[in-house]
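Dear U.,

For the methods section draft, I wanted the exact inputs and outputs in one place so we can describe them consistently. I've listed the two proteins in the order they'll appear in the manuscript figures. Please don't edit the token lines directly; just add comments below if something needs changing.

First protein:
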Amino acid sequence: IQIVHCHKGRARTLALLAGLFEKIPVLILNRGVSFPLDPWNRLGYTTGRVTAVVAVSQSIKRGLVAAGVPMEKIEVIYSGTDTDRFHPGVDGGRVRSELGLQPDHFLVTQIGVRSWRGNDDVLDAMARVAQAAPPARLLIVGAPPARIVSLGEKARERGIGDVTRVLGHREDIPEILAASNVTVDASYAGLGLTGSLRESLAVETPVIGTNLEGIPELVLDGETGLLVPPRNPEALAQAILRVIENPTRAKAMARAGRKRVEVLFSTRLKVEKTEALYTRLLAQRA
């Protein structure tokens, strides 16, 4: 084995332990979240036994440098999107039929359920949107069974239970995004580059994200989507209403977003840059 590339925390720990017994010529760690490093994790990234760290965004690289990881050790390689699977020709008609949507219904979608993903903020925003735009509907995807129940209860408490659907794990994410009129991510902690926003732009569905970490590297406010402050349901609601009120402008931003994904955030480019990194690091060890 010439290269070990660890993408998750458990893999990092196991690789560092294995390295005590067997020399690993090139050890690479990935960093895809922006949570602060505790002393143990910081040691894992700064130790000389780690050859390089791949950060999925420039913002995460800055955070690693601030935590004491040498800048020259960090390579930024953006997370990749399969632009062949996620493309503007994906048909969302089946999903809209499954959800019982009429042509005039405006579907707001959030993919991912975690405490820091701002699901409650999306519900609060939707309560405002529903009053101003009655055809609006909300879809939250990826909830474990217990959260399906709790999010449904929260929607009813806000008076939007009849316009909200919460689904569990789904494999048809391209079709869900194509069926949507806008994809939102209200994350307020720990994020790197939210995959659902990349994938949504790849199918040319408009996006709204929070102005945090790597999101502004993908979503250029007013050009490839809209950005809002985190933990601000009112701002999120106003952004959703802007998309509802000006669908032509929103679609133009989504098309520009597709081009940005093709240029900077495709799986093809990620693979090319990763292979180039492997080649360079092996040559340096030769």
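Second protein (the one for the lower panel):
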Amino acid sequence: MDHVLITGAAGFIGSALTEALRADGTHVTPVDDLSVPSWRPRPAGLQARDVRSLTPEDLDGVDTIVHLAAHKSVPASFHADTFGHNTAVDRHLLTVFAASGARRLLLATSCEVYGDQPGPLAETASLRPRSPYAVGKAATEHLTEVYRLMTPADRQQFTTIRLFNTFGPFEGDDAVVPAFLDAAADGRPLPVEGDGSQARDLTHIDDTIGMLRRILAGRELPPALNVGSGHTTTILQLAQQIIALTGRGSIEHTAPRPNEISSFTADMRRFESLYGPVPRRDLRDALADTRDRRAAARPALTAR
């Protein structure tokens, strides 16, 4: 793995992966169109460009592409063209990669492709998306499989990485963990959608990056792979933990989300069979780390 190109490299996960791989001595080319605000500093050498401007020649000398660029808001996808944007970007990158000399392509999708079905959710489960965002990611999964089947594995490898609910200090404030932490810090009620019984597989950013590093260090890529903790927490429990952790806040129940998913739990057996035990930071410790580092970053971001 001599040269990795990362799209969405200024974002929450992309910037953390860029930093970690560079610390390992890997040559990383970061690409991001900067259309999505990010709490993290931009990586050095960032190419500020649309993924759809990439050509096969841009991948000369690149061994692996990690495609993280996306518009990821599920609620926004019901009224914005998230589906059209993400599928156009994903399809362009697939065609560019297939025409290049690069060897591996990892495309990030989401646990949202599974929809509402009993877990733990294995990679062999059917795809039952329930939002325009999730439909777009499911379309990318199917398109990736088309290219994978038509390409000799000894020439190029394709895989989709189904990310579960990664959180951490520099995540955007539209996600549940930072939204709850910011509300508690400001003395506002924590907005719990519906009754809060919906459960999520919360994975600290350090654990997600650790798993991605192991995948990238491996020799073979499976067609699809879950990246999560394998454990769930309800949104109500999360709110209660953050109130206990911060000593501030109250719970305010709001309207339930359209087509809400009752639970996401990753079945991590495929990952464990290929890459070893799943790293899992204790949730309370991970929330405390997120609170402390986020609080330290907020004044500088407010001053921008």
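Candidate sentences for the figure legend, describing the second protein: DSSP finds eight helices and 13 strands in the chain. The mean pLDDT is 94.

Thanks,
Y.
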